[in-house]
Amino acid sequence: MPQEKARDLRKYDTPTLIRMLAEARRELFNLRFQQATRQLDNPARIKHVRKRIARILTILRERELA
């Protein structure tokens, strides 16, 4: 899956972003679990998911302050 930019994420409404945030956090948990058990194929995926979470949180915060 190609990495989404913040401008691409801004087109989603707030409930969708919250759902996407929960999914990304769940994925990060699973990736960390795989890393701990040495089953992770692509360790860089953790970095991408963390950045996706940060982007979503940033957009939600922008909307909260607006």
Structure write-up:
This protein is mainly alpha-helical and 66 residues long. It has one domain (6-65): Orthogonal Bundle (Helix Hairpins), CATH 1.10.287. The protein is built from three helices and no strands.
Number of helices: 3
Rounded mean pLDDT score: 94
| Biggest sheet layout | none
Helical fraction = over 70%
Specify Rg, calculated over alpha carbons: 13 Å
Q: For the record, what CATH class applies?
A: Mainly Alpha
Order of helices and strands: HHH
Strand residues, percent: under 5%
Total discrete domains: 1
CATH architecture: Orthogonal Bundle
Q: What structural class do the secondary elements suggest?
A: mainly alpha
Gross morphology is: elongated
Question: Poorly predicted ranges (pLDDT <50, ≥5 residues)?
Answer: none
Please give the alpha-carbon distance between the first and last residues. Answer: 31 Å
Question: If you consult CATH, what is the topology?
Answer: Helix Hairpins
User: In total, how many beta strands?
Assistant: 0
Quickly describe the structure.
The chain is mainly α.
Which descriptors would you attach to this protein?
single chain; 66 residues; mainly alpha; Helix Hairpins; 0% strand; elongated
Task: Give me the secondary-structure topology.
Layout: H1 6-9, H2 14-36, H3 44-65
Helix pairs in contact: 2-3
